[in-house]
Amino acid sequence: MALERSSLPDQVFAELAGAILSGRYAPGERLPGQRELAKSLGVNMASVREGIKRLEQLNLVEVRHGNAMRVRDWRASGGLDVLIHAAEHSGTDVLAPVFEARRLLIGEAARLAAQRRTDEQALRLLDLVDALAACKDDTEAQGLDFAFFSTVIEASGNLVLQLIANSIRDLYFERLDQFRVMVVNRKELIRLYRRTARAISAQEPGRAAGAAASLASVQEARLLGEMP
């Protein structure tokens, strides 16, 4: 089916990435040539080349001599930057492990934060809990929730955890409406936010890790329970 005329390279990329990530093209399978793709999608060759370049950057395809393109196994060759696109086409198959990783990351970040946090970071966490407790709007609560976990990860002082969190953050902001269930009915959550913040403030690593992991676990169960 021919594509619309706006943002043609983006649309070429989206069409082909969707076909690869949904399994319509299997790893090792050869993609149609660039001229054939341009004709079937109703776009020019420049748009096809640009779309394919983005696929290469995500390690979704390998372009060989003579423009032959083979699909790569993105689970073996891809990085965290493929998460947003994979989640769109694979649903729970990707989101479940993403939020399992989020739970593990948050627990360890809280453990480190209890050892490394500054006084300013400890106070910020306690203030964010108070703001969450007073918040009546779920959309606003999402922003506060994000700020809370960002502060925990910042306080951990670990650059790798920060970079991993950035990738999960991009996925989160792509699907704010879907993830809102994670912050509704906050009575149980406030108790866990506060327990986490207090343990970090008191520099109790074990308690902080347990409380943060429990909080992330409740949110994870809510999200996956809402998904088909």
Topology:
Layout: H1 8-21, H2 34-41, H3 45-57, E1 61-63, E2 69-71, H4 74-77, H5 83-90, H6 92-116, H7 119-134, H8 138-156, H9 159-174, H10 176-179, H11 187-201, H12 205-226
Antiparallel strand pairs: 1-2
Q: How would you characterize the overall build of this protein?
A:
This protein has helices at 8-21, 34-41, 45-57, 74-77, 83-90, 92-116, 119-134, 138-156, 159-174, 176-179, 187-201, 205-226, and strands at 61-63, 69-71. The mean pLDDT is 88. The protein has a two-stranded antiparallel ribbon. It is built from twelve helices and two strands; from the N terminus they run H-H-H-E-E-H-H-H-H-H-H-H-H-H. It has two domains: 8-78, Winged helix-like DNA-binding domain superfamily/Winged helix DNA-binding domain (Arc Repressor Mutant, subunit A), CATH 1.10.10.10; 81-226, GntR ligand-binding domain-like (Four Helix Bundle (Hemerythrin (Met), subunit A)). The chain has 228 residues and is mainly α. A hairpin with a 5-residue loop joins strand 1 (61-63) and strand 2 (69-71).
Main beta sheet:
2 strands, antiparallel
Query: So what's the CATH class of the largest domain?
Result: Mainly Alpha
Q: If strands are numbered along the chain, what order do they take across the biggest sheet?
A: 1-2
How many domains would you count in the coordinates? 2
The CATH homologous superfamily of the largest domain: GntR ligand-binding domain-like
Mean pLDDT: 88
The coarse silhouette is: elongated
Beginning-to-end CA distance, first to last residue: 29 Å
Secondary-structure class: mainly alpha
Tell me the number of helical segments per DSSP (H or I, 4 or more residues long).
Answer: 12
- Looking at the overall shape, the CATH architecture of the largest domain is Up-down Bundle
Q: Stretches where pLDDT falls below 50 for ≥5 residues?
A: none
Helical percentage: over 70%
Count of individual beta strands: 2
Q: What share of the residues does DSSP label as strand, in percent? A: under 5%
**Secondary-structure element order, as H and E?**
HHHEEHHHHHHHHH
What is the rounded Rg?
Answer: 21 Å
**Could you say what the CATH topology of the largest domain is called?**
Four Helix Bundle (Hemerythrin (Met), subunit A)
